[in-house]
Design goal:
- This protein is mainly α and 72 residues long.
- Helix 2 packs antiparallel against helix 3.
- Helix content is 64%, strand content 0%.
């Protein structure tokens, strides 16, 4: 299995940000607003997940996922 995306600094930082978001929304009052919590968690995971699109078989597919990660 190819895992080139794991070497990308942007993927590593996105993963760290997602872990941070999950921690802060698991504690205190922020975790009680379930709709907001779930939306922010999905957003935090989205960037790293879309960068994993680099695993696709074609450059066109990889570029498509990179643009989604960037928010374009």
């Amino acid at each position: 299995m190819r895992t080139r995306y794991k070497k990308l600094t942007v993927w590593q930082k996105a993963k760290d940000a997602a872990v941070f978001v999950f921690r802060i929304f698991g504690e205190g009052g922020l975790g009680k607003d379930f709709v907001l919590r779930d939306q922010i968690r999905r957003s935090a995971v989205s960037v790293a997940s879309n960068l994993e699109g680099d695993e696709r078989d074609t450059d066109k597919d990889s570029v498509h996922f990179f643009f989604m990660a960037k928010g374009i």
